[in-house]
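Hi L.,

As promised, SGNH hydrolase-type esterase domain-containing protein:
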Amino acid sequence: MNKYTIALAAALLAVASQAQADAPRRFDFTDGQPQAGYTHVGRDTLYAKERGYGFETATRADKPAYFSVDLPEGNYNVTVTLGGGTAGVTTIKSELRRLMLENVRTAPGATEQRTFTVNVRTPRIAASNTLAGGAVKLKAPRETVQEAWNWDPRLTLEFNGEHPAVRAIDIAPVQAPTVFLLGDSTVSDQPGEPYASWGQMLPRFFKPGIAIANHAESGETYRDSLQRRRLDKVLSAMKPGDTVLMQFGHNDQKQIKEGKGGPFTTYLDEIRLHVAAIRAHGGIPVILSSMERRAFDANGKVAPSLIDYANAARQAATEMNTPFIDLNALSKPFYETLGVEASKAAFAQPQGKVDNTHHNNYGAYQLAQMVATGMRRQGLAAAYWLADGYGAYDPARPDPVAAFAVPPSPNHTNERPLGDEANQ
């Protein structure tokens, strides 16, 4: 076999591999004969690498379940067919508890189709003219074990709800705009209840056709984003016109105590580096200030703990003519409206102890609406895909706690997210 034959064989193999990657993946979860072109998946079909799909654990019809399918890195439209013989209420989350569909109700005997767009990624950083190849420096064991579903080459879907009724799913690759997230534990995909972040809730507020790619991680700063190559990973995956939301501050405060920086020095410089790099790759950088912690003064007003970092973030946005979402300011009327005691309902309470930094599902859901509204008010192109009825959230009029009904995920943890140890 000469070199030309070898080259032709390699090219044909590459085309075949790409065709396989681009081919829709269709799965039928009903008990009867599967639809033409669909692969039948029984409740006892466990994930196996040789098969490339299956449930992560044994399933029951009335319990949440995790279904995984091998996929290359990229964005995908997932169309689910819901419903069946009995009434159903279905919530679907992707990867690590990213809320995609919330409490979709189907009447007995009726079916309904819904589509959402998801992002799948691996740690690999593709080499280019502007970036060295390599990989994100993941934190072990947190990202390699507890958060492995965020980085493996497959999509994992959580079927949850009062009576989840997933009949079929159709997964197809899509060239869609992407909103990338960089930030700390208040943004990152938290692996277990009772912790949650606004980054996990944000996909729920967008229509299909745009993907949310959450690259935030617990305990991190703008400096970590550079050193662990999270920014490089985003740049390697980003297409011109994509949006990057950045929110750091909680952990950057530790640099003052360590004598390694401050809000109006190193923090500002590191924001500038991020903005410049994103723009150089054709992206749209958006700076967010950090939401406040739960702390009140004697008059029931929020006692600021991150105001210097919020002001520095605003200064950077003004200086660089960058869209700015002041989550610090938006979080205050939210906490104050709930009040000193009732505001506990927005924060994680592992083993009954209130974590005054990290939110639960309810709190994260409210903050995500603030971010979505900020995107619309800043005139971002990505706001075009906001779901109907969202994008005008008033933090002084939050959703009633009693009416909040996003079902918790099965996985729980008492391990506090990394970072911010001094401000619990």
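DSSP finds ten helices and 17 strands in the chain.

Thanks again for sending the construct details.

K.
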